[in-house]
């Protein structure tokens, strides 16, 4: 595999030619915030938190979906990027009803942690306060649409790792909602194997194990990558 | 030495942020040497005074009384701090927002789920009138500092107060919930 040499924030680093800017940055110990990215799953570039500046390109590029090239000059932490990231996290908070104080995932939530990382002291946008449902028709798990950020990590974990594709998204824009099978209650979705990979993959308190209460939901999303690595490398 | 004029205000919240303030225990005695508590739910003062240096606001804007008081708070305070998640985001107080306007909420609570069936509360001039939506205070007035948390812990409130008393930028580490 050919090597590529590039700079990230002025630091010279080398990466394999098929690596993304995100992978190269992380290997070099440079942190870029992400939300829809999960090790082991394909990239969708949906959340835009990993946007970086690349010299010569007027557009910001998602680090998770941009392959390194020779001589590339990447900036990951400029005032412009910081402002965009904070705005993105604020918009996520404004779009649904994220009430950390009464959420199962409080203290173990990637969105809550992101708010701290990007310095979100408050939300400058008007809250939409949509009327969202909670589906607890499944015997073991529940889905609270109030907490969903539409990252599609559950959709990809279910499709790519479990090989089932129970989850998908219906609707557009602020009306987009996660659905199971052809928009039937989760408990009636016959394709679901109850494997729980969607629960592992979810970054917030949207998908939860039934019976867990405030701040109780601890998960290890890296188990998805472990499963994928075990398969690919035939452990 | 002139003591700093401190006020604390309790709007649409559970009083937990004030409990957290009281959780500072004996440090409150040290604090008393530096501040004069001019208005607070724990002080006997009916109207919000003029010339306040620092006001900590707990709670969201949920009724017409809050809406009126927060204007006085802003006009008469040099610095306003949003204390805790309800003041900063609406939080639990704003859980009713997706359920519709105030009248519909009252209908659901007092009539549909009332046991025995109640009547809609109507006490003009006594019980404040609910707003249709609960809103964070920065949507109504400019806020100088946001201290999130449900509640913010005593040590975090203390760190902010110590910094403000010393005239240094406060450390706002920690997040929501």
Brief summary of the model shown:
The complex is a heterodimer of chains A (235) and B (177). With 235 residues, chain A is an alpha+beta fold.
What do we call the CATH topology of the largest domain in chain A? Alpha-Beta Plaits
Mean pLDDT of chain B: 94
Strand content of chain A: 15-25%
Q: How many structurally independent domains of chain A?
A: 2
Overall average pLDDT of chain A: 96
Which characteristics define this entry?
heterodimer, A: 235 residues, alpha+beta, Ubiquitin-like (UB roll), Alpha-Beta Plaits, five-stranded mixed sheet, three-stranded antiparallel sheet, 6 helices, 10 strands, globular, B: 177 residues, alpha/beta, Rossmann fold, two-stranded antiparallel sheet, 7 strands
Structure, described:
The complex is a heterodimer of chains A (235) and B (177). Chain A is α+β, with helices and mostly antiparallel strands and 235 residues long. Chain A folds into 2 domains: 75 residues, Ubiquitin-like (UB roll), CATH 3.10.20.740; 149 residues, Alpha-Beta Plaits. Chain A has 6 helices and 10 strands; from the N terminus they run ββαβββααββαββαβα. In chain A, strands 2-1-5-3-4 form a 5-stranded mixed beta sheet, covered by helices on one side. In chain A, strands 6-7-10 form a 3-stranded antiparallel beta sheet, with no helix packed on it. In chain A, a hairpin with a 5-residue loop joins strand 6 and strand 7. Chain A starts with a strand and ends with a helix. The model of chain A has no long low-confidence stretch (mean pLDDT 96). With 177 residues, chain B is an alpha/beta fold. Chain B has one domain: Rossmann fold. Chain B contains 6 helices and 7 strands, in the order E-H-H-E-E-E-H-E-H-H-E-E-H. In chain B, the strands form 2 sheets. Chain B has a 5-stranded parallel beta sheet with strand order 2-1-3-5-7, sandwiched between helices. Chain B is elongated and about 55 Å long. Chain B starts with a strand and ends in an 11-residue tail after the last helix. Chains A and B meet through helix 3 of A and helix 4 of B.
